[in-house]
Amino acid sequence: MRQKDIDVLRGVRILIVEDEPLLSMAMVDEIEEAGARVVGPVASVEGALEILATTPVDAAILDVELQKQLVYPVADRLIERDVPFVLTTGHDADGLPERYAAVPHSAKPAPASEALTMLADLLSRR
Prior knowledge:
Residues 13-123 form the Response regulatory domain. Keywords: Phosphoprotein. InterPro entries: CheY-like_superfamily, Sig_transdc_resp-reg_receiver. The protein is an alpha/beta fold and 126 residues long. The protein is built from five helices and seven strands. The strands form two sheets. The chain has a five-stranded parallel beta sheet with strand order 2-1-3-6-7, with helices on both faces. Helix 1 crosses helix 5 (112-124).
């Protein structure tokens, strides 16, 4: 990860929404190494929405499909709040709804650093 990414991420609260424990743990490690703070991780849409109702977040990494449920309600809530996020998916990203066309996405499995670099780029534009 580039030093400028680490500088941008330092102290940022990042929500992780991921239902695969190994990927989730890798993201937690990468986020903490960059000096950011992990919110979650959570493995369900309901859990993510509960966190968003009570806990401020600055950014998020969302797995598109969680236990056969799509993460779109969480993504929509983040858009309403103007919170940047990255989508990760093991499926064809061309199948994402048009409203997420401008949202960066990472193909799974990819290194956690890929999604985190995309998130740093989004945050640096603010």
